[in-house]
Amino acid sequence: MKFIKGLISLLVAVVILSAAAAGAGWLWLQNEVARDGPSVAETIFIVEPGEGLLSVAARLEKQGIIRNARLMHLKARIDGTETALKTGEFTLGPQASLGEVLDILVEGKAVMHKLTLPEGRTTAQLLRLIEADPVLTGPMPETPPAEGSLLPDTYLYHRGMTRVKLIAQMQKAQDDLLKDLWPKRQEGLPLANPYEAVILASVVEKETGNAEERPEVAALFTTRLKRGMRLESDPTIIYGVSRGEPLYNKAGKRRTLLRSEIDRKTDWNTYQIDGLPKTPICNPGRDAIAAVLDPPETEYIFFVADGKGGHLFAKTLAEHNRNVAAYRKYEREEIARERADK
């Protein structure tokens, strides 16, 4: 009987000591996890696509951000976050504890990068900007997206975002915009479908860089289409000649259109064809698309550049001819002024 009592007492003592040891171990682990880290400055740390916890923890230790890679692995196993690390670029503060570092990498509070893709650029021009971005990863798509299918905007993304994924995001953004705006369009528009709206918006976008003029230009083109008049837009000629790339003379300087180019019939030259161009001539922005789907009323059917970044609008050909004469006079005066300054 005494033997049994002694054995029970021993077992109780072992259990108590084991519990105490476990408690001490747990307390030690919590203290180590919460302990200030060794780094003395803010650090940018990148988790590469497909990188596992063991590799990440080893690099963190090597870079002096945490003290013990194995401890981080243990902490992640206990928390069930071994496979929960996010890909991206993270900001780790000075003396960030092991627990804080792990939380940041798991919660995915990655540094955001941005790429501004301007309105009025052709698809080829936007793709060049995307390809040149140093933070985006991966190759360009094997098949380029169609002209006019991307929505220009400023896009935010994490490091690790692929070029293909960003392009798909731009396409979806335009699809979503059209799904929202097309059902709300003004009645009686000379547009058969959302694609034609994008085509007309692309012409509006190229015709004016002045945001305040977009609705008026959209209204003018809408009126011309309703009356069966040709759009007669210079950018449509350029697209038929160079697919929207700038035109240069033999000396390498930008030039204006040649008479032979104006007279050349292409699928885009709206001086030579009725209705809309065959495809968009650029990627229009939100405002241009919204303008062609809800243009204001106007009696203007002609317009010409005023030489100051805007346009002169006219209701009649006679008024338009006076505006053209005024613009040409302005051009002559500017040329004379430039020569005098030299």
From TrEMBL:
Its EC number is 4.2.2.29. The keyword Magnesium does not apply. It catalyses: a peptidoglycan chain = a peptidoglycan chain with N-acetyl-1,6-anhydromuramyl-[peptide] at the reducing end + a peptidoglycan chain with N-acetylglucosamine at the non-reducing end. It comes from the Bacteria. This is Endolytic murein transglycosylase. It is an enzyme of class 4 (lyase). The record marks 207 as: Important for catalytic activity. Belongs to the transglycosylase MltG family. It comes from Hyphomonas johnsonii MHS-2. NCBIfam families: endolytic transglycosylase MltG (TIGR00247). The gene is mltG. Pfam families: YceG. Functions as a peptidoglycan terminase that cleaves nascent peptidoglycan strands endolytically to terminate their elongation. One of its GO terms (molecular function) is lytic endotransglycosylase activity.
